[in-house]
């Protein structure tokens, strides 16, 4: 039997690539610049499978030039760059990678919180700049112990952050579309969104980007937070109105922000946010460990190979068109 024709839109971890290579003829976009549909259209015309990074949206324009697609897989849990109804209309199952990145992403979110609170990154800059001298003190941080953490979006990653916070002596509250009745969430107290904003000392955002959550943190929301509040975003940049965040930080309406995700992404080096002293930004590395990125690539490759063989994907977003 011939090999399946598969388009890969970006870099792919070796473990995933090895799985695909066995069964597929691969057309891979290897440039660092993001591809446009026109760059891939010749390959997409023949492709039966699409292994897509978040470097190109999956939309009507792309699907229209890929009439033979049987399956799409993406090594990411968030699928805000994918038009799921458009895939479903064409009966194309879309696989994401939930589960395998939960603990890794929670580590980063909690790490950002801890780093910002205790100024670890500023301490390192201080030492490197030769400022560690007798009698000279760098600005103090704040404790986590005894404080309240508010988690916005209590899914699997939120629960994993909650466990870490509780082990550090924090009280955990959360807001979600609805209260969760399961054990993990029971150890945290449910709050309405506005109540959480007013009560939390630290806010960690982990909600998926949807039409409802886009821009859910704007001027009004920052105004409701404590002036001592720390704001951590490990979800998607567009959940936050960037200008409003800039204003809240510049005017000290809130104390500090630590971001794994920004809008835009990547954040240009001359962006106004980066002129502030009360912010820490890292380049979207929530799932970026070698182990986890390999697991994500392998799960995405497994989904793709299953779909190509007409078998059910392991983790399918649009179950109604998954193979049976
Ligand atoms: C991805 C992420 O690795 O899974 C997600 O939704 O945000 C990250 O873990 C990133 O989007 C690159 O694919």
UniProtKB/TrEMBL annotation:
PANTHER family, alphabetized: 2-HYDROXYACID DEHYDROGENASE-RELATED (PTHR10996), GLYOXYLATE_HYDROXYPYRUVATE REDUCTASE B (PTHR10996:SF283)
Pfam families to which the protein is assigned, alphabetical: 2-Hacid_dh, 2-Hacid_dh_C
InterPro entries reported in the protein's UniProt record: D-isomer_2-hydroxyacid_DH (IPR050223), D-isomer_2_OHA_DH_cat_dom (IPR006139), D-isomer_DH_CS (IPR029753), D-isomer_DH_NAD-bd (IPR006140), NAD(P)-bd_dom_sf (IPR036291)
Superkingdom field: Bacteria
Residue span(s) of domain D-isomer specific 2-hydroxyacid dehydrogenase NAD-binding: 110-286
Coiled-coil blocks: none
Annotated family: Belongs to the D-isomer specific 2-hydroxyacid dehydrogenase family. GhrB subfamily.
GO cellular component, one term: cytosol
Gene Ontology molecular-function annotations: glyoxylate reductase (NADPH) activity; hydroxypyruvate reductase (NADH) activity; hydroxypyruvate reductase (NADPH) activity; NAD binding
EC number per UniProt: 1.1.1.79, 1.1.1.81
Keywords: Oxidoreductase
Reactions mediated catalytically: (R)-glycerate + NADP(+) = 3-hydroxypyruvate + NADPH + H(+); (R)-glycerate + NAD(+) = 3-hydroxypyruvate + NADH + H(+); glycolate + NADP(+) = glyoxylate + NADPH + H(+)
Keyword flag Methyltransferase: no
Every D-isomer specific 2-hydroxyacid dehydrogenase catalytic domain range: 6-318
Catalytic EC class: oxidoreductase
Name the record gives this protein: Glyoxylate/hydroxypyruvate reductase B
């Amino acid at each position: 039997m011939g090999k399946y024709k598969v388009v890969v839109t970006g870099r792919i971890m070796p473990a995933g690539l090895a799985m695909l290579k066995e069964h597929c003829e691969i057309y891979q976009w290897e440039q660092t610049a993001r591809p446009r549909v026109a760059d891939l259209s010749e390959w997409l015309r023949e492709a039966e499978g699409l292994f897509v990074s978040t470097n190109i949206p999956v939309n009507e324009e792309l699907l229209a030039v890929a009439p033979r697609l049987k399956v799409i897989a993406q090594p990411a849990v968030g699928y805000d760059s994918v038009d799921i109804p458009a895939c479903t209309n064409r009966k194309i199952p879309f696989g994401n990678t939930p589960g395998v990145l939960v603990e890794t992403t929670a580590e980063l979110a909690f790490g950002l919180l801890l780093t910002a609170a205790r100024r670890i990154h500023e301490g390192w800059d201080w030492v490197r700049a030769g400022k560690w001298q007798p009698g000279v003190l760098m600005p103090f941080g704040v404790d986590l112990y005894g404080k309240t953490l508010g988690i916005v979006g209590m899914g699997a990653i939120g629960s994993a952050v909650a466990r870490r916070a509780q082990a550090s002596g924090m009280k955990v509250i959360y807001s979600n579309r609805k209260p969760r009745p399961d054990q993990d969430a029971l150890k945290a107290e449910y709050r309405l969104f506005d109540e959480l904003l007013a009560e939390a000392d630290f806010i960690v955002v982990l909600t998926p980007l949807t039409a409802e959550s886009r821009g859910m943190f704007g001027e009004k929301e920052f105004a409701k937070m404590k002036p001592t509040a720390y704001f951590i975003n490990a979800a998607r940049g567009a959940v936050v109105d960037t200008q409003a965040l800039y204003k809240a930080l510049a005017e000290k309406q809130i104390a500090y922000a630590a971001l794994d995700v920004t809008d835009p992404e990547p954040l240009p080096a001359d962006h106004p946010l980066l002129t502030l002293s009360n912010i820490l930004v890292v380049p979207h590395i929530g799932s970026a460990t070698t182990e986890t990125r390999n697991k994500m690539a392998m799960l995405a490759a497994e989904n793709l190979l299953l779909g190509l063989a007409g078998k059910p994907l392991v983790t399918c977003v649009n179950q109604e068109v998954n193979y049976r």
